[in-house]
Design brief:
Pfam families: AXE1. One of its GO terms (molecular function) is carboxylic ester hydrolase activity. This is Acetylxylan esterase. The chain is of the alpha/beta class. It has a single domain, classed as Rossmann fold, CATH 3.40.50.1820. Helices cover about 30% and strands about 20% of the residues. The protein is built from eleven helices and nine strands. The protein has a nine-stranded mixed sheet with strand order 1-2-3-5-4-6-7-8-9, sandwiched between helices. It starts with 7 loop residues before the first helix and ends in an 8-residue tail after the last helix.
Length: about 325
């Protein structure tokens, strides 16, 4: 796998001129306000009977997301006295919450761990509100893309913020020590949540993030979801590209980053063909809070793999967000 982008010194200085929607803040305050107002019931936590995991308690969760609709999650609680620091994990593209046995790192390290399903992508959370004119190609990138109000990621990002809202109310969780976490799409969602949830997020772990600097991704990504934009615009020749990228401006990590103030640890693979390094650095370089980035020189879209998790545990401990000491 060759290098896919700029040299590292250029990436560290990369700050493209970008046009932010004038009503970005109003759009999101209205979106989240409506979702919270639509909530009729609190999150439900159902113990999983016959769980094979003896060191953690496993709960099948439904919390209210977009329009109050139920979103599935797993909550894994270590058998330890609380209140516990917590990690909220968002999923990669086309992935759901899977099985609890797939998500043992954070609870083994002593964190409460909420593993959030992605509406329409996982098997447990449907997306009953597709756009009224749902023209899309392949996956989810172009679903409702001609309207910010109807775009798929408006619903998914709202779910992600509401996951933090739900977890803050759990009696076993320290509401002041909630970390958002994810890789690829999950990394982009963690970044968006850090920008939207304010002081409710204590730290963000943003691995090889997708959903950043969409136009650059469309221009140079050779694999993954960004080429869906190219395919869509190639097929729908009468759709103005400015309209498409205008919609995407409401959901771009480069615009959430200046609004995020929690400490953040990013990661990037310099040989990543899915989320080109310049798209990652475009967001990282605009991030407003304390920040650091782990650069994996020979990393592809898997980034640093398990080595990044070790780095994250040490980084959190160094900021008073560990589970020992």
């Amino acid at each position: 796998m060759p290098l896919t982008d700029m040299p590292l010194d250029e990436l560290r200085a990369y700050r493209p001129e970008l046009t932010e929607p004038d009503d970005f803040d109003d759009f999101w305050s209205g979106t989240l306000g409506a979702a919270r107002a639509a909530t009729a019931a609190p999150a439900e936590y159902r113990p999983v009977p016959g769980a094979r995991l003896t060191a953690v308690e496993v709960y099948d969760v439904r919390f209210p997301g977009w329009d109050g609709q139920p979103v599935a999650a797993w909550l894994l609680l270590p058998r330890a006295p609380g209140p516990l620091p917590a990690v909220v994990t968002y999923q990669g593209y086309s992935g759901g919450r899977g099985l609890p046995e797939e998500h043992l790192l954070w609870s083994a390290a002593g964190y409460a761990h909420l593993v959030v399903d992605s509406r329409g992508q996982g098997h447990e959370t449907p997306d009953p509100d597709p756009a009224r004119s749902p023209q899309w190609v392949g996956g989810f990138m172009t679903r409702g893309i001609t309207s910010p109000a109807e775009y798929y990621y408006r619903r998914l990002m709202t779910d992600c913020v509401r996951a933090v809202d739900a977890l803050r109310a759990h009696p076993a969780v320290d509401a002041d020590r909630i970390v958002v976490h994810g890789g690829s799409q999950g990394g982009g969602l963690a970044l968006a949540t850090a920008g939207l949830a304010g002081d409710a997020v204590a730290a963000a772990l943003v691995d090889v993030p997708f959903l950043c600097h969409y136009r650059r991704g469309a221009d140079i990504a050779s694999a993954g979801p960004y080429p869906e934009l190219v395919q869509y615009l190639g097929v729908h020749q009468r759709v103005d590209p400015a309209r498409v990228f205008g919609t995407l401006g409401y959901f771009d990590g480069v615009h959430f980053a200046p609004r995020a103030h929690a400490p953040a640890l990013f990661s990037v693979g310099l040989m990543d063909p899915v989320c080109p390094p310049s798209t990652v650095f475009a967001a990282y370089n605009r991030y407003a809070g304390e920040k650091d980035i782990t650069v994996w020189e020979f990393g592809d879209h898997a980034g640093g793999r398990a080595s990044q998790a070790v780095t994250q545990l040490d980084w959190l401990a160094g900021r008073g967000l560990g589970t020992r000491g």
